[in-house]
Amino acid sequence: MRKELDEQLCRKYPSLYRDRHGDMRRTLMCWGFSCGDGWYTLIDVISELLTKHNPQAHAMQVKEKSGSLCFYHHGCDDYSLGVQMTAETLSQYICEICGAPALLNNDGGWSSTRCKEHASEYSVNDDLEEDIDISSVADLGLGAAWSRLALILKQSADWHTEKNGRPAAAFFINKSKTNGQLAIRFSGGDEMTAGMVDIIAGYANRIDERTGLIVIE
Ligand SMILES: [Zn+2]
Description:
By secondary structure, the protein is an alpha+beta fold. Helix content is about 35%, strand content about 20%. The protein contains six helices and seven strands; from the N terminus they run αβαββαββααββα. It has helices spanning about 5-10, 40-55, 80-90, 130, 145-165, 190-205; strands at about 35, 60-65, 70-75, 105, 110-115, 170-175, 180-190. The strands form three sheets. It has a three-stranded mixed sheet. A two-stranded antiparallel sheet has the order 4-5. A two-stranded antiparallel sheet has the order 6-7. The longest helix is centred in the C-terminal third of the chain and has 21 residues, at about 145-165. Zinc ion (ZN) binds near residues 98 and 114.
C-alpha cells in the first residue's frame, strides 16, 4: 500500500495501529499494510468498526494472502471475528489494485483478486454478473453491487450456522428512504452476526449501489 494511505490509516486509528513501527521481534505490523491500495476503503471500514467496538483492540498483521485480506488483531471477540472473517470474504470480490468489483483468480497456481483491467492475460477472469447469481436476493430491489453484498452476508451467515453451529439469523435488508443508505437489521444470530452486518453495511455505504465502484474513500 502506498505511503500516504498507510500514514492516513495510522493517523485516523492511532490506537489500533500503535505497533505500526514496532519492533519486528514483537509485531508483524512493522511491515505495514502488505496489500494493494484497492483494499484501503475496506481496511478503513474494518478499522472504524473495531476501534468503535473495542478501543483497546490493536492490529497484529494486515496482509494479502492467497488473494484475500488477512486482518489479525489482539482483542478479538465474536463481534470482531464477524467483522474480520466477512471482510476476508468481501476482499475476494474487490480488486486489490483499484477497488473495483472483481473475482478471485487463479493464475497458474497464484491466487489474486483482480478486476478485468488488472487481471493478467493468463488468468481466467470470469464475468462477475455471470458468476454470481443474485436472483435469490432480487426481491430486495437493490442495485447489482449491493445485491452481491446482501448475498455474501446471507451465505456467510448460513455457512457459520451450518459449519460452526452458530445460531441462525434472519435479515431485513433495504435501502433507507430517509438517507438512501443500505440498512440491515436482523433477528436471531449473535454478536458475530452483528459484526458481519456492520462490515457489509459499512462497506456498502462507501460504494456505488450499482457499479460497486468506491465513492467515499
Ligand atoms: Zn482493478
